[in-house]
């Protein structure tokens, strides 16, 4: 038995030496770093004690000014934390050829819906992006405008009924039901009925995707850090019931439309065109498979309902705290609609500049995606330094930290829409606002996201006075259990109908 004990101790010593060597990566490269701890590296507490946005902000503040990037670890995997906006520009735009992959986990074999535009890499991503880009042009958004306005009308009626019963409402869930219905209509051509039924299957499945406890957060960090191992273990991002539900919805929708020759100006219609001909508006951009349709419709649904609803919720929260900003926005809306004879048109919406500034300031202060991740696809010599980022290294761009850097945005915790007056925007670094990313791999659906957010917000500001109530938490606390930056316990506000 002695030999077995000796072997065990030797194995433990070797593993410890290996792990110690791995966690000395940044120190050996003379890169400023945050001291890691086994077994989680620097991500201990994510999903339990702290949201990733706050943790990365702490690291950013500790290392800022010490170089273009600093070193942290996801488990034993080295991650470069961006600390300088010129470095951010190199990663996202100037030297994009070295950073075109996100480095996030997907498993096309066992978890087909995970292989969508957000996660795909290399040539597959490039080809799919080029095929889908024509579906998100401003012209296509203009076609979808009346559909979203129609859903917003139902939203207004639903809110009016709720306010009659109780003017103190948890607005985040209501807003998510609105955006769920918008996305369901535009992406699937289906009436999800979430506004009238908070337990509709679309709403429940959408919520399930974004509910992240500590174990799931660690699991997803593990899959991103050790992707090949995770795929060999056939690990999945999505729950089986969620995957089955969305795959069936897409298959049934495509079959019904093709058999009944149904044509709509929506996202699904455009995807079906790509599936059957590869053409959009006369341009041959290449065909897609039914599985690719399902994956893109799925990610469009997820990205569209959660981020937009959360952004609107934060807008309402800040408007409830600043009646002057709210009154100024309402006056702009009324003045523009008077000019257009009371009709809420696409052109009228484009003239509501201050409303747009409110949304951008909300995205600045509360970015739904608190970080942007990129993978180094080939060895990269960092300009102006002696450092080399090796292939496979992850780069984390801390969006929340940059948006709250007082050297970029003075008094960053103050909500000030005038920060986004065109003249103020021009004074700042081009990478100082990263709510939708930047460069060739920015958010493809940003125009749609802004469209539904603007329509929803205009509908709310015009028809309701928004104030705090006894249940409003000031200052906000962020949920540690969600990837999207979300208020803990929802967001309670008082709404009062404006009689016209």
Annotation, overall tally of beta strands: 11
Helix percent reads 40-55%
Q: H/E series, N to C?
A: HHHEEHHHEHHHHHHEEHHHHEEEEHHHEE
> Please, what is the average pLDDT?
87
How is the secondary structure organized here?
Blueprint: H1 2-22, H2 25-28, H3 52-63, E1 69-74, E2 77-82, H4 85-94, H5 122-132, H6 138-165, E3 168-170, H7 171-188, H8 201-210, H9 214-225, H10 227-232, H11 240-260, H12 267-276, E4 279-280, E5 283-284, H13 290-321, H14 323-339, H15 346-350, H16 353-365, E6 372-375, E7 380-381, E8 388-389, E9 394-397, H17 399-403, H18 422-427, H19 446-463, E10 464-467, E11 492-497
Parallel strand pairs: 2-9
Antiparallel strand pairs: 1-2, 3-11, 4-5, 6-9, 7-8, 10-11
Helix pairs in contact: 6-7, 6-19, 7-13, 11-13, 13-16, 13-19, 14-16
What would your notes on this structure say?
- The chain is of the alpha+beta class.
- The chain is built from 19 helices and eleven strands.
- The strands form four sheets. It has a four-stranded mixed beta sheet with strand order 1-2-9-6. A three-stranded antiparallel beta sheet has the order 3-11-10.
- Strand 4 and strand 5 (283-284) form a beta hairpin.
- The longest helix has 32 residues, at 290-321.
- The radius of gyration is 24 Å and the shape is globular.
- It starts with a helix and ends with a strand.
- The model has no long low-confidence stretch (mean pLDDT 87).
